[in-house]
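User: For my dataset I need records formatted as: sequence, then structure tokens, nothing else. Please produce one.
Assistant:
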Amino acid sequence: MSETPRPEDDAGLAGKVAIVTGGGAPDEGIGNGRAAAILLARAGTRVLVVDIVREAAEETTRMIAAGRYGRRLRRRCC
């Protein structure tokens, strides 16, 4: 039995892992990468957000966590 019920619209993505490159956006805007990361998280996918601007990627992960859209992968950086 899974931890949480699968939403009917998860498109089979629940429990999967996704890497979203370009997942940040300026300020609190919603670009394609950020939107993809949020939608994947809503579908139950664990999301790793990557962006050339580290702060933008971190903001996306905060938005996912604050919105309780789903679980995110722990961030590790070199």
